[in-house]
From TrEMBL:
Residues 14-36 have a biased composition (Basic and acidic residues). Coiled coil: none annotated. Gene3D superfamilies: Helix-loop-helix DNA-binding domain (4.10.280.10). The lineage of its organism: Eukaryota, Viridiplantae, Streptophyta, Embryophyta, Tracheophyta. It comes from Gossypium davidsonii. GO terms for molecular function: DNA-binding transcription factor activity, RNA polymerase II-specific; protein dimerization activity; RNA polymerase II transcription regulatory region sequence-specific DNA binding. Residues 27-79 form the BHLH domain. Homodimer. This is BHLH domain-containing protein. Its main location: nucleus.
Length: 176
């Protein structure tokens, strides 16, 4: 008889352990579901944020997240091409200005102020900083603004500062 009561206790212990294991498994599953739900919500928020940053032409008519991701990749590649093109134009302008600036006879110190251009990528577009001389052969701000508009850049801010007989134009642009 002593053997049957110990078997009953063993069964009770085993069923108690199974219930405890089952409860622990349920807690793990519940925690895993909660973590996965939170991850999906965060990804959804990030995708929505990405959609707001992309121009309409890159997401127009597309509903799938993979299409938006491909649109973002295309947009970044297009921006990089435009930046490379602007850097090439800057280098051309630099070479052209180096060929004639400061080397002609009879120029005053103001006219000999070296011209240079620096183009930097910014969060919204491109920042262009141009230093130039003052005079008839100087690169004019209107010409620079015209070139930027031709390249598809929208000027949002322009600051001009006079330094040492020359001008420094800081132009902030956005892609439109």
């Amino acid at each position: 008889m002593g053997g049957s009561s110990s078997r009953g206790r063993q069964r009770k212990l085993l069923s108690t352990e199974k219930r405890e294991n089952s409860n622990a498994d349920d807690k793990k599953k519940s925690m895993h579901r909660d973590i996965e739900r939170q991850r999906r919500q965060e990804m959804s928020t990030l995708y929505a944020s990405l959609r707001t940053l992309l121009p309409l032409e890159y997401i127009k008519g597309k509903r799938a997240i993979s299409d938006h991701m491909n649109g973002a990749v295309s947009y970044v590649k297009d921006l990089q091409k435009r930046i490379d093109g602007l850097n090439a134009k800057r280098d051309e302008l630099k070479k052209a200005s180096d060929n004639w600036s400061g080397f002609e006879q009879g120029m005053t110190s103001n006219e000999a102020f070296p011209s240079s251009a620096v183009v930097r990528q910014s969060l919204d577009g491109v920042e262009v900083v141009i230093s130039t001389s003052v005079g008839p052969k100087a690169l004019t701000l209107s010409r620079v603004l015209q070139l930027l508009l031709e390249e598809g850049l929208d000027v949002v801010n322009c600051i001009t500062t006079r330094i040492d007989g020359g001008l420094i134009h800081t132009i902030q642009t956005e892609v439109y």
